[in-house]
Design a protein that fits this description.
The chain has 61 residues and is an alpha+beta fold. Helix content is 31%, strand content 26%.
């Protein structure tokens, strides 16, 4: 049972997340030889003030 976690900044629509879930699941089925029913995709929106790259908060850039 693969679990795919997608962490990204807020702002994606429900439709965008649905499309991502579909294509991620398809890729897991094709490449990892699992089934759609066994594949879980979890989306987590992370606020920019909780995300840093290169020592700088994303909310500061």
């Amino acid at each position: 049972m693969p679990i795919v976690r997608v962490e990204m900044w807020p702002g994606r629509t429900k439709s965008q997340k649905a499309e991502l879930a579909r294509v991620i699941t398809e890729a897991m089925v094709t490449i990892a030889h699992t089934t759609p029913e066994a594949t879980t995709v979890i989306f987590e929106d992370v606020a920019r003030e909780n995300w840093a790259v290169g020592g700088v908060l994303a909310s500061q850039s």
